[in-house]
Each structure stands twice: as C-alpha cells, then as structure tokens.
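Researcher: Following up on the earlier apo prediction. This time include the ligand. It's adenosine-5'-triphosphate, with the SMILES given after the sequence.
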Amino acid sequence: MSPEDDKEVLIRVRGLRTQFGTHVVHDGLDLDVYRGEVLGVVGGSGTGKSVLLRAITGLERPAAGRIEAFGTEVLTASPEERDRLDERWGVMFQDGALFSSLTVRENVEVPLRRIAELTPELRRALADLKISLVGLPYRAGDAAPSELSGGMRKRAGLARALALDPEIVFLDEPTAGLDPIGASAFDELINTLSDALGLTVFLVTHDLDTLYATCDRIAVLAEKRVLVTGTLPEMLEVDHPWVQEYFTGPRARLARDAIRTDTNTEAD
Ligand SMILES: Nc1ncnc2c1ncn2[C@@H]1O[C@H](COP(=O)(O)OP(=O)(O)OP(=O)(O)O)[C@@H](O)[C@H]1O
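Model: Understood. Below is the ligand-bound prediction.
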C-alpha cells in the first residue's frame, strides 16, 4: 500500500486536455489533490499552471478529460452543483483581482452575498473577521484596493477567497511581486491557515522559497502533463533536465540553505 492510499482525494484530474486553437497546453494530464495538503504546482513559463487552476475551478473549458471535485464532476455540474462547488473552494488570482470600485470589506462581502439569510450587519462582521484573519489591520476594510500595498492587496484577495470558509484555496503566484519580507510573511500566513484551519492549498508558484517554506508536496508540469509529484527531497532525485535544473540549481540551493539556517536558528 502506498502512503497515498489512505488519503482523501479532494480533486481528481484524469486525462485532461486543454488547448487554445491548435496550441495544446495539456494532454493526458492526471493529478490528485489530497485533503489538508499544501500542494505546490511548478513548471516552466507557459507550461499551463494557471490554465490548470482555471480548468479545475471551472473557469476554462477543457477539450477532454475528467475533473472531479468533492466527488462532483466539474465539467458536467448542474448550476446547483456548481454553486455548491463555489462555496467549497476559494480562488485568489495573481493580482488579487479585487473590484476597484468597492472597498476591501465590500470585496470580501461579495461571496457572502450568496447567503440570503445573512443580514448586512452579519455580512459586514464576517467580512471583518476574514480581513483580520489574513493579518490586515481593521482599518483596511474601509480602504479602496488602490490605497493598499501589493502585499496587502494579496491578503485582501485571500480574505475574499476565504469568505465562505472553503475547504480548499487555489492561489495563483501569491508571492509574485512581493519583496522578500512580504513574501515570507505570506508564506507564514499560508502555513498558519493550513495548520489552524486544516485548509487544503493548491499553490501555483515560481518561488522556491515558498516551496521550501510551505509545501507538503510538489507537482511538476512539463511535457503537457504532470511529469512527477512528490516531496521536495523526492524532487532532488528526479532524473529530468528541467526538474534537476530547477531543484538543484544555484537558486534552489540558496532557498534550501536559507530554510536550513532558519530551522537551526529556531532550534538554538
Ligand atoms: N485565454 C487564452 N487564450 C489563448 N492562449 C492562452 C490563454 N490562456 C493561456 N494561454 C496560453 O496557454 C499557455 C499556458 O498559459 P498559463 O498562463 O497557464 O502558463 P503558466 O504556466 O501559468 O505560465 P507563467 O508561469 O508564465 O505564469 C501559454 O502558452 C498561454 O499563452
């Protein structure tokens, strides 16, 4: 029995094919996402990490294949099933994708409007709770997205993704464009949410520091499919040029050493 056998699969992708015109992005892609894990999805530029995220969450129509989320077939879901899926996952896009004409609190309230029983006061209180959960100051709720720093906007996007207490969040490049301090603070936030809430995280990233700091497992996209999945130590053993270069190149060594130094310092 492999260690994966006793894990609950939240998302199961089989034989996925996506294409734009004649440009095939994925072909025969298989992937499982397990409950409670932080899964890092990596791959060279243009290998289809964001398209995969959009396909799983029903925002991109694949040419073929099956995508199952919480036991529901995403591609053939009825509008009611689709609504239920939207309540069980949250998506944070690269730039936060906030509505610029709404305050941060109003942005976080958008998904909460799906729940008809919520009074405006309760909706506001729940939004404020999510705003503080992601480490934003209380006053940020009244701000327009444009008044926030990039890092704060990303946190606001995460607060909105968490509005309905999802079981899984999809994060597209959450640390892209952040300075190193902001990026490591965001890594810590991912760890806190995953530990405290048992949240499953599907994390598209190029950021090696984030991989080392947060991920339980990695999925590498190459050759139009998930080439390999495994833990970081397992990645170091994979005999593939891109995987070798990515995980054992100079930047990877720096990231690995930085984490080791952190761990040793904590242990002192
Ligand atoms: N709406 C679209 N129309 C046409 N082509 C698209 C569309 N969306 C994505 N693509 C193409 O699909 C391929 C995969 O794109 P995707 O954004 O998923 O890559 P990625 O792995 O996330 O890249 P990066 O790491 O650079 O963000 C790219 O070649 C991209 O140009």
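Model: The chain is about 40% helix and 25% strand.
Researcher: Noted. I'll compare it with the apo version next.
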